[in-house]
Design a protein that fits this description.
215 residues
């Protein structure tokens, strides 16, 4: 039994050139449960070169929603996860991941996306990142388990260096305040609600808070 989504995709594939990228993307969607990597690669090409415009769609979001039935959030995770693999793990892309028998060993796109975000987290350290990487690519842990591992690594680091953890919380809180103040300052300036001297005081406060972050 084929789902309505699959039947809909098959109808869209009818009459398309089988060698075209548009056809291949639709084909990749049907194979999504076997491997997301080919779909991510195809979508990356569509997004980068804005090919969806040639197919009658004004935006990438409209294309993914109406033609292949993939939500914007999912499509962007696929793009970023594939791009991360291409940049950070090119050797993995050289593997033959298209074999359905190997589907269980292919890391999920959400797990790869989480690894991508963890790459830039200084608080987990290089050892922590390598541990997460092993869990994703070698142990094949799913997104939920990798997220738990990441949370545990951050908490462990905070326990080892509580002062650093306090500094991060302080910086994070100041950034939120600065962001709010900047938004209010812009609104006040546009509506001319307060005199220039008061606006300058707000700007001085923003500058002072930002200097606290840099320290």
């Amino acid at each position: 039994m084929k789902t309505k989504a699959i039947q809909n995709i098959e109808r869209k594939m009818e009459g398309l050139d089988e060698s075209s990228l548009r056809y291949r993307v639709l084909q990749n969607v049907m194979q999504f449960k076997t491997s997301w990597i080919e779909l991510g690669q195809s979508l990356y090409s569509v997004w980068k070169d804005k090919l969806y415009r040639d197919w009658g769609y004004l935006t990438f979001e409209a294309y993914t929603a109406k033609e292949i039935g993939v939500r914007k959030d999912t499509a962007m995770k696929l793009l970023r996860s594939y791009s991360f693999l291409e940049k950070e793990e090119p050797q993995y892309l050289k593997k033959d991941n298209g074999d359905p028998s190997e589907a269980a060993s292919i890391p999920g796109y959400e797990a790869v996306n989480l690894l991508r975000m963890a790459k830039n987290k200084k608080e987990i350290g290089e050892d922590g990142y390598e541990s997460l990487k092993k869990n994703v690519f070698e142990k094949g842990k799913d997104f939920r388990d990798v997220k738990k591992d990441l949370t545990a690594l951050i908490r462990q680091r905070e326990d080892l260096d509580p002062q650093e953890a306090r500094n991060r919380r302080k910086s994070s809180a100041i950034r939120r305040v600065v962001s709010t103040l900047k938004g209010l300052k812009n609104d006040i300036e546009m509506a001319k609600l307060l005199p220039a001297s008061t606006i300058k005081d707000i700007k001085d406060l923003i500058d002072k808070l930002e200097s606290e972050i840099n320290e």
